From TrEMBL:
<dbReference type="GO" id="GO:0016705">
    <property type="term" value="F:oxidoreductase activity, acting on paired donors, with incorporation or reduction of molecular oxygen"/>
</dbReference>
<dbReference type="Pfam" id="PF00355">
    <property type="entry name" value="Rieske"/>
</dbReference>
<dbReference type="GO" id="GO:0004497">
    <property type="term" value="F:monooxygenase activity"/>
</dbReference>
<dbReference type="InterPro" id="IPR014349">
    <property type="entry name" value="Rieske_Fe-S_prot"/>
</dbReference>
<dbReference type="GO" id="GO:0051537">
    <property type="term" value="F:2 iron, 2 sulfur cluster binding"/>
</dbReference>
<keyword id="KW-0813">Transport</keyword>
<feature type="domain" description="Rieske">
    <location>
        <begin position="247"/>
        <end position="337"/>
    </location>
</feature>
<keyword id="KW-1003">Cell membrane</keyword>
<dbReference type="InterPro" id="IPR005805">
    <property type="entry name" value="Rieske_Fe-S_prot_C"/>
</dbReference>
<feature type="transmembrane region" description="Helical">
    <location>
        <begin position="59"/>
        <end position="83"/>
    </location>
</feature>
<keyword id="KW-1133">Transmembrane helix</keyword>
<keyword id="KW-1015">Disulfide bond</keyword>
<dbReference type="InterPro" id="IPR017941">
    <property type="entry name" value="Rieske_2Fe-2S"/>
</dbReference>
<protein>
    <recommendedName>
        <fullName>Cytochrome bc1 complex Rieske iron-sulfur subunit</fullName>
    </recommendedName>
</protein>
<feature type="transmembrane region" description="Helical">
    <location>
        <begin position="95"/>
        <end position="118"/>
    </location>
</feature>
<dbReference type="GO" id="GO:0046872">
    <property type="term" value="F:metal ion binding"/>
</dbReference>
<dbReference type="InterPro" id="IPR036922">
    <property type="entry name" value="Rieske_2Fe-2S_sf"/>
</dbReference>
């Protein structure tokens, strides 16, 4: 800036800056940036007409009640509609009616709580604007007293204590909405019902070699060998093959009868051929590492070790239960068949397991 322009700049043209004598220039009433102050308060209809206030109160209560009904509808939809009930819903197309109902009911429940709170604040709570000066973070006793007084005044002006209908319906809506999250816990996975206790094995089902896809005969299994079988009727092309084989996978071992320590295991087998679940009872890994001299089988995931000559008893590792054994026999054509399902649930332990 040139010296000429500096001479043309007078103190009155420098608002809020110090002049040559060190005093602060404060804008006057005619200054273009003067503080206009707060406009005069205009009362709302609800402030001067109690009937209008009661109407607003009923509207807010209705919204809170509608939220509660929507929450109940959310829970009822979860029970009433199966997830695989697919219907055409315009404009969404073919969708699960359960997902649509959950979205609609939860949306209504949350929207009505928000709309009710907003309508309450805009029509019934005090709308008088208050200007307050900034103050240091560490408040003195006078400031703290003022804060508490302002809070009590705000609570009184909100009608929270006086308008019990609003207060109670709001509490009801807020208490019910969290139930939607509790119900949604079911979507962490399908309810197991009794699926964990049953597999595809059943009386008369042949043991199918998973390598050749042919049924086993006792002579197909050599002493000291380990073979793997699946139930008759299960095909690799089946859409649920992986789900079913994860429970029904079987391993066959042949042990000399005089080396079998557990008599029940021998009774469940045929000529030293024993059939055990391949699924580790720790976290469900496939058990497959067999040592024929000791008859021990090892899970490769966490080294749980089972003694197949002693009812697949756990001798090392974190597994909590022996491998379930399948009772087998030979049919009229000489093929190995199951005499039923496993007597214990296969795979990892769960708290209902007997």
């Amino acid at each position: 800036m040139s010296s000429g322009s500096e001479n043309n700049m007078s103190p009155e043209h420098l608002p809020n800056e110090q002049d040559a004598e060190g005093t602060v220039a404060v804008p006057g009433a005619d200054h273009p940036f003067a503080d206009p102050g707060l406009p005069a308060h205009q009362p709302r209809k609800q402030d001067i007409d109690e009937k209008a206030a009661k109407r607003s109160e009923r509207v807010v209560a209705f919204l809170f009640l509608l939220s509660m009904l929507a929450t109940v509808g959310f829970i009822a939809s979860f029970v009433a509609f199966p997830v695989d009930d697919i219907r055409y819903v315009w404009p969404l197309g073919h969708v699960s009616i359960l997902h649509v109902m959950l979205g609609v009911t939860m949306g209504i429940a949350l929207f009505c709580i928000g709309a009710g709170a907003v309508h309450w604040a805009r029509t019934l709570m005090s709308d008088v604007e208050i200007a307050d000066e900034r103050h240091p973070i560490a408040a003195d006793e006078e400031t703290r007293s003022k804060v508490f007084a302002d809070f009590q005044q705000g609570a009184a002006e909100s009608g929270f204590g006086r308008r019990k209908l609003l207060r109670n319906t709001m509490f009801g809506a807020l208490a019910l909405v969290p139930l939607t999250g509790v119900v949604l816990l079911r979507d962490l996975g399908p309810l197991p019902e009794d699926k964990l206790r049953h597999t595809l094995w059943g009386k008369g089902k042949r043991l199918i070699n998973m390598n050749t896809n042919e049924p086993f005969k006792p002579e197909d299994i050599e002493t000291g060998s380990l073979s793997f079988a699946m139930p008759e009727g299960l095909e690799y092309e089946d859409h649920d093959f992986n789900t079913e084989i994860a429970k029904a996978a079987l391993m066959l071992v042949r042990i000399a009868p005089d080396e079998i320590k557990d008599q029940q295991s021998a009774d469940f087998g045929v000529d030293g051929v024993l059939a055990y679940s391949k699924i580790c009872t720790h976290v469900g890994c496939p058990v497959s590492l067999y040592e024929q001299q000791t008859h021990h089988v090892l899970c490769p995931c966490h080294q749980s070790t089972f003694d197949l000559s002693d009812g697949a008893r756990v001798i090392f590792g974190p597994a909590g239960h022996p491998l379930p054994q399948l009772r087998i026999d030979v049919d009229d054509e000489g093929y190995l068949t199951a005499l039923g399902d496993f007597e214990q649930p296969v795979g990892p332990s769960f708290w209902e397991r007997g």
